[in-house]
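hey can u check if this looks right to u? its 730 residues, i copy pasted from the old doc so theres a chance i mangled smth
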Amino acid sequence: MVLSNVRSCISQPQKVQSLLNQLIIFFLFLLPPANAIFFNFSSFQTNYVSLTFQGDAYLQPSEGLQLTKNTLSSNINSSVGRALHPEGVRLWDKSTGRLTDFTTHFSFKIKTVNQTSPFSGDGLAFFITPFNSPMPDNSTGGALGLLSDESAVNLTQIPIVAVEFDTFCNDDQNYLDQDCKGDYRKRHVGIDVNSTISKNYTGLPLDITKGSTTNALVTYNSTTHNLSVFLTFPDKPDFSGNNSLSYIVNLASILPERVSVGFSAATGMLTELHTILSWSFNSTLEVKDELTLPNKTGDGFNQTSNTRDGKRKNKLELVIGLAVSSGVVSGALGLLWFICWRKRAGGNIKDFEDDDDMDDEFEKGTGPKRFTYYELLRATNNFAEGGMLGEGGFGGVYKGLLSESNIEVAVKRVSKRSKQGKKEYISEVKIISRLRHKNVVQLIGWCHEQRELLLVYEHMPNGSLDSHLFGAKISLTWPVRYKIAHGLAFALLYLHEEWEQCVVHRDIKSSNIMLDSNFNTKLGDFGLARLVEHELGSQTTVLAGTMGYLAPECFTTGKASKESDVYSFGVVSLEIACGRKPIEAQSEPSKVRLVEWVWDLYGKGQLFEAVDKGLSMEFDEGQMECLMVVGLWCCHPDPTHRPSIRQVLHVLNFEAPFPNLPSKLPVPMYFQPPMHMCKFSNTSSGLTSSKDQTPYSCSSCSTNSPMSAGPSKPLLHSGETDVELASIIH
């Protein structure tokens, strides 16, 4: 019987994985709680949410967590409720004195019931309290479900730390809110320690009770003891670099080692509805804990067992026996699953076997630091979808906040599906970490743990160039556009001529050009970049880049060079001037390719007909002509007729005359793929490119062309690897 099941499992590895997962989940319930904890409820649209409810709190799948009564047909005055995560959180370790860092993110709505009244009450709170502690009696109204009304001002015997969102200012002796000053409509967020009189507070918008979504991020730094609160509102949906509120508190001196985390809310004479829409939490403390069983009959938050020594010993032996048995069974099943997976994966597990070698190589450089996976998990709120800045062929980019330094960053998470992911990751770290230039994106750090490849960059508040040229972001004025072109030229001059080695970028495009807060150019995404000696200037390599920006010679020679980078610069220059993409397949035939269209207008003396209509003719004509002519010069089909980037700068600075170009686009000496060889799809790429941008990428088709030696697909391979262009091109 066993052998037949094993044979069945080997033939159907998904059954092994399913059985293994079930066993692991079962035995986890027999083991003591984990020290570090992580959970993420992106929504509460299902009944299958494991939470503990107290008082009037309940789950309403169509809405979210309701912390107080939400049935308008009944009396909702003096309602109070709590929702807590059932697992205890290890806040600190008595033997070492170590505290945990933690990060929690939640979104909520507060909605007044009486729309005609300027008053509502009383608010909600995120709180930390001893594990299994009960909800206090008489904790309605201004007590917010945190403390009983008798202890709302005086220090309590039940320790609690909370972040309160108070919607009604109480200035009576029990609930003295320090910022009321006689105005009951004032609302505030405050940090409470053993009292509902906040240790620190700041104001909330008056319209917070109108039912709009508020996002909160609460972080705790165990080193600095800094408890920080970050808030966003509908008019400002992104977390800024500065916290809204903070307070220094040593949680180990206030709370026991094991705590509960959750939310509370209350109404009094005034009412409102309190709804939690999403919640995630992550703590970091890892310690080797002795087995202790929670006391179900004690004082409500005692963490030690009061059972007799004999019973405790028996339980301990039972749990150890079950754990060992489960380990043996899980190990055997895991081995079978691994064998099946190994066969199916074809040996891809080698991808991460040389992490130590990568560490040695990376850490030879200076500047960027190595981050742990959990640091970046906290920084990005578990790579929250709402924080995604863009997504390209090699993975997604997420906005993050480094809690220790309060620095906003962009975290690139290399997709595990990317065939070239590790290669590009190594290339990026080894090259960009050594570059220092005002027009090159700064790499802050890197991480390769938990089978993840992560790159941390400085955050660019104004996103990518293409999001302004083609997306929903604000249109750029002409002086800003000309400055961006200048900055890109300076970046290339540094890469091609001024650094110790020549860096060939190989993927210069508008979505890889980032803009800082002052719209200064920052060239990013060095995943395809290669180092060459200055005297060589080119190298044979796998065909890589983005259709529309690739120099025509690349399709036959496979050589990346300074000249091919200059070609891409020329395309971007024309994009900046014309406000359109390099290839627009739906345009009339004469306008499909940007370079061909503009060159035709140049020959007719009608160059300005290609100018971006979004500029409303508000531009410097001399600069416009200069940028467009330079763009065409850089896009000459013959690389020997293209300028160096230094020559480009001389012309852009009006230090050299314009080039005299032929009136018609010269016939390329290299293969240039016809339009019907490629099908275009809308993708997004770049360091922090916007979700709604649509730079084109080309995936090969099987259509034959008279210009080709056969199907297009083999032309898009280059011998060194069997990666399709759709995988190489972002």
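The chain has three domains: 2-28+305-345, 39-283, 459-728.
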